[in-house]
Structures are given as C-alpha cells and as structure tokens.
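2024-03-11 09:14:02 INFO receiving multi-entity request
2024-03-11 09:14:02 INFO entity count = two
2024-03-11 09:14:03 INFO echoing inputs for audit
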Amino acid sequence: MIKAIRGTRDLLPPEMALWNFVEAAVRDVFRAYNFHEIRTPIFEDTQLFSRSVGEETDIVSKEMYTWQDQGRAQSDKGQSLTLRPENTAGVVRAYIEHNLQARGLSKLYYIGPQFRRERPQKGRYRQFYQIGAEILGPATAGSESPARDAEILELLSTLLDRLGIKGWTLHLNSIGCANDRAKYNEALRKALDPVKDKMDPDCQRRAVTNPLRVFDCKVPEDQPIIEKLPRISEFLDEPCRQHFEQVQEILKSVGVEFELNDRLVRGLDYYTRTAFEFTHGALGAQNAMLGGGRYDGLSESLGGPPAPGIGFAIGEDRLVMSLTESAEAVVRKPDVYIAPLGPGMNKEAARLARELRRHDLVVELGDESFRLKKSLETAAKLGSEYALIAGENELSTGVFALKNLATGEQKSIARDALAQTIQRM
RNA sequence: GUGGGAGUAGCUCAACUGGCAGAGCACCGGACUGUGGCUCCGACGGUUGCGGGUUCGAUUCCCGUCUCCCACCCCA
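2024-03-11 09:21:47 INFO inference complete, emitting structure
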C-alpha cells in the first residue's frame, strides 16, 4: 500500500472544518487591520533562503528539501531549487521584485504549507502550515515605528481571543540593532570563553558558532553559567532601547499582557530588535505556537531597497491542536434529507433538492430504492434537521411530509412553503 | 541526526510460558412493504505494519526495515 510519506498527513473531515473555521476567522481579523493576502511560490531559488535565513542555521544547513532542477538544454545544469522552509523570505523577494515600495507601507498576510525535513513528532510535521503576516516598507512610511510592532502584537492577541484560545503567554524581548548585536556578541564570547569548557558539548558548540543561542540551552547543569552571562538589554543603544520601551508602553495602554524574557533569542539570522513568541501549555515540548520579530535589514541583504519590517508566523497545525472546540461543532449539518419513495421518484427528489439548494439550504438526497426506514435512519445519522418524504401521495397532492428529526413532529407542507418552513428553524 | 515506547478488523483494545486470531463499538442486512433513535437476530470484516530468521508450529522469540508517539536538537 502506498502511504503518505513521513511527516506529511491528510486532513480529513470533520477536522478540516476546524481548519476552515480558523482560516475564516484569521481573514476576518486581518481585514480589520487592513492586511491583504499574498501568495508566493512554494519553491524558490535556494539562495533566497541561504542568504536570508542564514547559512549557519539548522533550517538551511540540514532541513531543506533542495534539488537540482533540469536546465533548458541537455548541457545546462539548471539551478538549485528549494521547497520553502518559511515564507518571510518569499514575501520580501516579491516585495523587491514588484517594487512594492512604490505603494508605501505593505501589510501582507499569507496562509500556506512550508517544508522542513525534521524528525516528526507531535505538533511538528515535514509539511506544516503557517499563517503569517508582514508589515514592511520605506521608513518614511512608518515601517520602523514601534507602533507597527505593537499593532502586530495586539492583532495576535485579538486573533487568539477571537478563536477562544486560552492560556497563552506572550514572551517579549529585544535582540538589538546590528551594532548592538556585534558588541553584545563580543561581550558574550568574552564571558563564555573561561567557562564554556564546563558546559554541555552541544552548548559549547553554540558558544562558538552563535553565542546568542546559548540562551536556548536547556541543560540544567549549565543554567548557573547562563544566568551570569551579560544580557542584551545592557547593550542596547539609546534609540534601540527607546524603541523597545515604546512598544511596551503601547501594549500596556491597549491592555495586552506580556512577559519580558531576556533569554528569548530567535533562530533566524535576519531578526533584529523586537523578538517575540506566544507559547501555549497544551502543546507539549513544542510549545511555541507562533513567533516573529523585526527584520530591518532583510530587504537590503537580498539586494532590495531599505525596507524595515516586522512579521510573525503562526504554526497552524499547533494552533488547531490547541483549540478546545471539537471539530464536530463547526461542521454544517444538512438542513434537510430528501427521501424519494418508490420507483421513478428520484426525478422528483432531484427537482426538490435543486429548489431547496437555491434557497441556500444544505440538502442531502436518498435514493428511490431505499426503504423509508433506511432513509430516516441515514438522515438522523447525518444529523439532518428535517427529513422530507417524496412519495407518490405527495407528488399527486403537491403536499409533502416534512419530519423534524429531533422532535419527531411531522407536518404536511405545500411545495411552495417548503424552503421557508425549513429555514425557520 | 540521537535516545526510549508502540504498531492486531473502520475505531478502542484482548489473546497465559510459542499452540485454531477474539470482543465491544461502527458498518451492512433482516425482524418491521410509507416512518429514525430502543430491542433482538444475522452477515461482513485480518498478509497481526513490511521483509527475513529460529521452530513441528510465531501476534508472541531474534535481526532488519517502515510508520506513529514521547523526549533531545531546532523551530511554527
């Protein structure tokens, strides 16, 4: 038997209804904040990711699905292509390619699959779905303002509330401007140098390759060392510190709760200044439900114009997982099940169905070969509100038997009044 | 990529130390010719994840492999 490959899965009804519910709510919220949808290709030039996400990151160094495309001519080598492991790079590429800076501030959102070749576990898949958004544009359009950071965070809290997700925590940090980062990295290396030999091998490796990531170390024995390390907050220059202050002030004024977490660092190279993460208790070890941050230099590093920006990505798989409502609750059940009774009645049933569906009713059809008992059973099993009996008697009199399956009450309704009666539930 | 656990009917799970692969629910049909939910009866349902090995005999023991789950790494 051919099976779905490792780390991929089928989303079947009724769970799929939950995904649609989430996406509809998300689009609704984005509309209120004047975001507009963008779709970018699911594969791109490999360099787009290595240059933005960072050559040294796990994502680029070992998790990408990359292949050599065929060239046009037999002799051509073709180019290296990659299934997108995240969507910010693609959005920024599109921003540059279509000269969106000419339109002022861009507020874009996307929903779609991403691909990373990691070992699957709960809440982690090789094809997973992200809902994300980006605000970027010329600094003169306000893209750099702390108001944008706050707007993004406030939007997210609205979205989670709207979906009825309880028990989330917003972790907030600033990882500094480019200058701060350089100074801070230097200080970190200096502080780590005498002590790193005592650390877990894995943490040691980070101390060398990317000192910031030492803060992600979870080995208990290393915690005392980590606690004593200098913090980025001590290295922020004045504009950067003020920017972060203002983000916090706006959040307080709109009533969005957050926790400062100066150990929150993020894995992608392009992040600067504001970094954040929303966690949720019900997700096990993969408790990051969404994350994001500012990326003021990304556009330029991809050869584009200056376009400071901030964005986030929600793990849709994890978001759906944390929803408490059952999938059944959001599935729309049939309003009426039509039971054609006796030879030749399928034709009549089809006409009835057509009429009722035009009134925006959800209609399911039986078959003239079914016994009435079977039709009623099926109708009840599907959760249909009504059963409509279409037999010889009804056809000749023009008056149909309409049965409410919840109460068992049955009425005779003239053909013209059927849709109206069913709608009045 | 590393460590641990688990794969038996559509679903949830049994099967003693190696001895005829089972139950509940679901599904289908009947009792009941145009009236569902309750009840009763019956039928269907399996390469025991896959491949090899040991054995008279393997769901059970051994090896390999695949998938899922938990954790690490990392991230959404």
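2024-03-11 09:21:48 INFO post-check: Chain A is about 35% helix and 20% strand.
2024-03-11 09:21:48 INFO post-check: The two ends of chain A are 46 Å apart (CA to CA).
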